[in-house]
Amino acid sequence: MTVEQPDLAEHYSELAAEYDEHWVYGPEYIPWMSARIAEALSLSSADRIADIGSGTGLFAREVARIVHPDQPILCVDPSEAMLRQLSTPSSPGLTPILASAEDIAEERTRLPYEALDAVWLKESVHHVTDPGATLRGLAQRLVPDGRLLVVMLPATIQYPLFRAALERFEELQPDPADVVGHMEHAGLQARLFYVEHELRLDRDKYIAMVRARYMSLLSTFSDSEIKKGIDEMRATHPEPVLVFPDRFAFVLGVRQGGKR
Ligand SMILES: C[S@@+](CC[C@H](N)C(=O)[O-])C[C@H]1O[C@@H](n2cnc3c(N)ncnc32)[C@H](O)[C@@H]1O
């Protein structure tokens, strides 16, 4: 199987135990996002579903609660530490698969289902080395009329981060329009749309999340750079509650019937 870059593997390994806490921005965030995923993929209980780069499975767990799939959702992730969190609390509706998106795309890892009806990647496509090739391989795992959804941050974000972090984000973040192109090359009918959610976060909680490097982007900064960045955030955002839009690009591809 593909080995992750050591620093990335280490990043998620260190974050795993606290990951859900970091992402529970507020009680409504996970149900809201999971409902958008279920809706975009038109999920039904008969679908064989995979969440690629599932992390701790916090969205898959909620999708399973909404859809009640007849067969478990496959939670695929190369980080053992992240997958270990799947069982806390125990989730019979989820099956962990230790593999990367590339392993599935190139069939190095066999899945328990012969083909998939619906697949999503939420905030994991930026970790894939060759997204064109990997999305093509994933598209080939779909049944005719199967759906592939990439959920990602847009090319620019309005998070209350320090300036250098926002600039580095823009340098590193893949463009959702490129993902549309990759899906079309893979023979999918693709469309891009955005969903938005207003976040209201206690400033000190957000600063603690930044200090814990809740985004992998932040792991590219040294301790002293993070400290300087936090000082800048405190000066720029004196307000006790930070209010900002969390905007996501949804790229949905549908495999055309009969073209397998
Ligand atoms: C930002 S987290 C997102 C986790 C989850 N989808 C969510 O939205 O909470 C990124 C996840 O991608 C995983 N990842 C890293 N490299 C990957 C790869 N090549 N293929 C699939 N997943 C990968 C990481 O282990 C991590 O769990």
What does this structure look like?
This protein is an alpha/beta fold and 260 residues long. It has one domain: Rossmann fold (3-Layer(aba) Sandwich), CATH 3.40.50.150. The protein contains ten helices and seven strands. Strands 3-2-1-4-5-7-6 form a seven-stranded mixed β-sheet. Strand 2, helix 4 and strand 3 form a beta-alpha-beta unit. Helix 2 crosses helix 3 and helix 6 packs across helix 8. It is globular, with a radius of gyration of 18 Å. The two termini are 26 Å apart. The relative contact order is 0.15. The structure holds S-adenosylmethionine. The site of S-adenosylmethionine (SAM) has 22 residues, from helix 1, helix 3 and helix 5.
Please sum up the structure shown:
This protein has 260 residues and is an alpha/beta fold.
Walk me through the topology.
Elements: H1 6-23, H2 29-40, E1 49-52, H3 58-67, E2 73-77, H4 80-84, E3 94-98, H5 101-105, E4 116-122, H6 131-139, E5 142-152, H7 163-172, H8 176-185, E6 188-202, H9 203-211, H10 223-236, E7 241-255
The chain binds S-adenosylmethionine (SAM).
- The averaged pLDDT comes out at 91
Which strands sit side by side, in order, in the main sheet? 3-2-1-4-5-7-6
Q: Name the CATH superfamily assignment.
A: Vaccinia Virus protein VP39
**CATH arch. level architecture:** 3-Layer(aba) Sandwich
Hetero groups in this structure are:
S-adenosylmethionine
Indicate the overall shape.
globular
Q: Are there runs of 5+ residues with pLDDT below 50, and where? A: 1-6
Number of strands: 7
Which bin fits the share of residues in helices?
A: 25-40%
Q: Please describe the biggest sheet, giving its number of strands, its sense, and whether it closes into a barrel.
A: 7 strands, mixed
Question: CA-to-CA gap between the ends?
Answer: 26 Å
Structural category is alpha/beta
The count of helical stretches stands at 10
CATH fold-type name: Rossmann fold
CATH class: Alpha Beta
Radius of gyration: 18 Å
Task: Spell out the helices and strands N to C.
Answer: HHEHEHEHEHEHHEHHE
